[in-house]
Amino acid sequence: MTDPRLERLLAAVPGLRLKTDPADLEHYGRDWTRRWMPAPLAVALPGSVEDVQGIVRWANETGVALVPSGGRTGLSGGAVAANGELVLSLERMNRVLAFDAVDRTLAVQAGVPLQVAQEAAASHGLAYPVDFASRGSATVGGSIATNAGGIRVVRYGNTREWVAGLTVVTGAGDVLELNRGLVKNSSGYDLRHLFVGSEGTLGVVVEATLRLTDPPPPTNVMLLALPSFEVLMQVFAAFRERLQLEAFEFFTDVALRHVLAHGAQAPFAETHPYYVVTEYATGDEREEAAALAAFEHCLENGLVLDGVISQSDAQAAQLWRLREGITEALARYKPYKNDIAVRVSAMPAFLAETQALLAQEYPQFEVVWFGHIGDGNLHINVLKPDAMENDAFVAQCEQVTKLLAGALQRHGGSISAEHGIGLVKKPYLSSTRSAAEVAVMKGIKQVLDPNGLMNPGKVFDA
């Protein structure tokens, strides 16, 4: 190791693990976006809060920027290290620290995978309800840094609602214990919420106290075939009125075709233009009858064309695969992703405008729609033709994203529902946040990260 800055780091943090192999630099220096060439200085793998604090203080002394890293499953370039930064990976800080049966909380280190936290909660007869398809590799710290949502927001809300306390190392190298798991705490500003969704730009989340809840009730899964995009919100309203919804997810025939090509089983003999997979509470005959009533109401009014109700856990998993397998099935196409949100009440008007916009502007591309309709979140994936150069493809997509951002601004929406801003959405932040809001955010960053070393260039330019 010849770089004197790294030698100084090892002296400042004894026993710190460092990776400098080119393959490691490439692996840890990027996330799922694959749009930027990773070029970090090195990868640091701390084992304790003290190690993280030592790394941040070293960064302030040497001027080397830091990129916090969790599972790197992000889709907005928030974990990209492309300019000689030190990647600060939390993967070694992966222990479940404590369970409190009275408070019903679980304390974990930030590098714990989401699925491990879920399993730890289940071992105590409780549930950590934040859930999404990358649960096996996404970490608790990363999900907090992006305020991740997922497939059950319609029932449980985003990550923010389940964070009872945080331990963070600020960009200045200070360790803060935020909220300490309290249910009520009106003693000034709740700094915990500044770090939820901050994308590593204010500091490093090192430990979290998670709220737990009762396990979900027995549920069933229903797959619905819809005749048109326009009836989607009517179907949602019919099911929400009659059932306790755990999830309500939408996808198109194009999305289904890719998942089937990836090995899933076709749900119907015929192909339909739109689909919904919904999971709902059911434990008695009354709830089963309500589910059938919702389906029959939609069928009689021409809102659905067909449906299937899971008869076993295995069949429920098959139906869910049709939705959760989309991202994996599309990966080879290097899709350009838009992750957008509007109020549920504004969804019909926004959908009509956006559908027309994309049909007009993307006639040469295959567009795959899916999303969490129950909470107003749509994912729009534009697939790159194999013969097209990636730079030209991205340039065309970004021109339409500018138009999409304008539509979102008119409908009071957000350019990023759950993936964060990172590098990908930074040019469109002004469609969601006013200049005054951005100025406040920059002021907060200046206080917590005075030298601008925490994930620089992400969310906004300093």
TrEMBL record:
Residues of the FAD-binding PCMH-type domain: 36-215
Top-rank EC class of the record's enzyme: oxidoreductase
Keyword Iron-sulfur: no
SUPFAM superfamilies with a match to the protein in the record: FAD-binding/transporter-associated domain-like (SSF56176), FAD-linked oxidases, C-terminal domain (SSF55103)
Biological processes, Gene Ontology terms: respiratory electron transport chain
Enzyme Commission code(s) on record: 1.1.99.39
A Pfam family matched in the record: FAD-oxidase_C
InterPro entries: FAD-bd_oxidored_4_C (IPR004113), FAD-bd_PCMH (IPR016166), FAD-bd_PCMH-like_sf (IPR036318), FAD-bd_PCMH_sub2 (IPR016169), FAD-linked_Oxase-like_C (IPR016164), FAD-oxidored/transferase_4 (IPR051264), Oxid_FAD_bind_N (IPR006094), Vanillyl_alc_oxidase_C-sub2 (IPR016171)
UniProt keyword list: FAD, Flavoprotein, Metal-binding, Oxidoreductase, Zinc
Cofactor(s), by name: FAD
Record's catalysed reaction(s): (R)-2-hydroxyglutarate + A = 2-oxoglutarate + AH2
GO terms for MF: (R)-2-hydroxyglutarate dehydrogenase activity; FAD binding; metal ion binding
Entries under PANTHER family matching the protein: D-2-HYDROXYGLUTARATE DEHYDROGENASE, MITOCHONDRIAL (PTHR43716)
Family: Belongs to the FAD-binding oxidoreductase/transferase type 4 family.
Summary of subunit composition and partner proteins: Homodimer.
Protein name stated in the entry: D-2-hydroxyglutarate dehydrogenase
Lineage: Bacteria, Pseudomonadati, Pseudomonadota, Gammaproteobacteria, Lysobacterales
